[in-house]
């Protein structure tokens, strides 16, 4: 059993001499992974980063400016001093490609080089827009997975294929949500059969139907199609729906295929991780660092701006994925450190109102905003369009808020509880290494986090510094 035991030293040793392909490295999670590997194991052989770029020079430029030259890499930079650029040049290889294309858009010799050399593939690329275009979301989150699986099958010595999915791919279920692979055909709505290939054909048909429309109309049609198909099969938005289909494709190609690549046969070498909502870095290398506005931070922004905040959801601490636990810490931050206006005056932080159900929120919005809007509409008609501009501005804002609630609302009332038995098994296998600091580096037990302290002291200041700047 001793060989089954994991500790920090063994994890660090694992990456020695390995060649790793990572997609999504310009994104939030991807670059955290790249930095961590380079920090803990400078003797990694190569890290190939597939980025969307028109040519090699722009791929290099993107990797430099969006990955290795970001503040996130400050610790690695300090460690290597003047040798940092040489170290990065030696270890990091930018590849100009795109996962939506066959062979990832790479030339055959390069693809062959990867197939001959890769030990690990990490697919972190995705389009994470909840209300994204259906054609784009299918291309990236489903076809992209297929293309990476095809590469995995060509690899001679691949040891691990790691695909990053999302905890919400399983939909808004209640009770314990188990960690099981999604079989193709499965749908959240009972009695339905989800055929991924049929969805790809459908989107190709619709693409042809709308090809003569202008850009805006095409975008709208594709966005609406995504939401309609997601809801038809029981998912709440296009993102989680296409992520679920991506997993189905992976399952079909790497777990059930009759001729899987020998090196990654079975579930041992194929790993699907399903994080919930990922917030800023807690400790290493830069506490509070994050990139891109995340779902829950939209609310922080509104509190900071001292806008009246009405939110569907329950206040108070809850499961860590829930918005309100974070929101309580958010208000405390802005109450103690209120915003100051241009003339030095304190801008008071507004109260937040929570609603127990979406229905009660909708009634509130109807009485407080929709009815006055309708009255304004009538007055505007009577006064021959005197308030047209005001009316259309307010009506647009109202529609925007209601749309946000439609897309994000289900997450505020999420009643499921994610089973993490596999992670727990992994935690149990973790032993102590000779250097306790190394153990801290691989701590992945959320129970060890003081969540209130984290949100109040690290995450919210991080949002202010890195997102709202
Ligand atoms: N962040 C979260 O809270 C969260 C929670 C659960 C799961 N996840 C999952 O974690 C992964 C990373 O999420 P993230 O938050 O880091 O996302 P992100 O910041 O939006 O980054 C997405 C990355 O994917 C790349 N990408 C998109 N389309 C691509 C394509 N066609 N070819 C190649 N690369 C492409 C983007 O490249 P460009 O720079 O060119 O756009 C970017 O590097 C995703 O799979 C997501 O589903 C995230």
Automatic annotation (TrEMBL):
Biological processes, Gene Ontology terms: long-chain fatty-acyl-CoA metabolic process; suberin biosynthetic process
PANTHER family per UniProt = FATTY ACYL-COA REDUCTASE (PTHR11011:SF39), MALE STERILITY PROTEIN 2-RELATED (PTHR11011)
Please give the Gene3D superfamilies that the UniProt record associates with this protein.
Answer: NAD(P)-binding Rossmann-like Domain
Family recorded in the similarity comment: Belongs to the fatty acyl-CoA reductase family.
Q: What SUPFAM superfamilies would the database entry show?
A: NAD(P)-binding Rossmann-fold domains
The protein in question is named Fatty acyl-CoA reductase
Summarizing the function annotation, the protein's role is: Catalyzes the reduction of fatty acyl-CoA to fatty alcohols.
Q: What is the enzyme's main class?
A: oxidoreductase
| Fatty acyl-CoA reductase C-terminal domain residues | 369-469
Q: Name one GO molecular function term.
A: alcohol-forming long-chain fatty acyl-CoA reductase activity
What InterPro entries does this protein map onto?
FAR (IPR026055), FAR_C (IPR033640), FAR_NAD-bd (IPR013120), NAD(P)-bd_dom_sf (IPR036291)
Source organism, top-level taxon: Eukaryota
Q: Where is the Thioester reductase (TE) domain?
A: 22-300
Q: What is its EC number?
A: 1.2.1.84
Asked whether the UniProt record includes NADP among its keywords, one would answer yes
Task: Enumerate the catalysed reactions.
Answer: a long-chain fatty acyl-CoA + 2 NADPH + 2 H(+) = a long-chain primary fatty alcohol + 2 NADP(+) + CoA
Arranged from A to Z, the UniProt key words for this protein are: Lipid biosynthesis, Lipid metabolism, NADP, Oxidoreductase
